[in-house]
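INTERNAL AUDIT FORM
Audit reference: QA-55
Scope: verify that the stored structure record matches its stored sequence.
Auditor: D.O.
Record contents follow.
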Amino acid sequence: MINTINYETNTYTQWEQLQQPLHGNGNQADTLRLLAALDEGWQIQEAASYLAHGSNAEGLGYLLTLYHPKRGQTRECSVTHNADIDALLAFENVTGLYH
């Protein structure tokens, strides 16, 4: 992992600086990364569902657009489709979902 520091503001600016939660609580790594991002102030702006296919076929998932208002940064992340993610997206009133 490559980390860069913006020496003018002396803050880390990379998405990879998220505090990674512990594994082993029954959630997948992508879900844990999303929860860590939300804890650090990222907001889910929109979601698009997709179906992975080919040699990496993992099934249904979501491509999420995240925004951090204080940093003015936007990132995309993907998470596996499951009931917990559906409930989280509904709770966050995320646009772009059409079930």
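Auditor finding: record pair retrieved intact. The chain has a mean pLDDT of 76.
Action required: none
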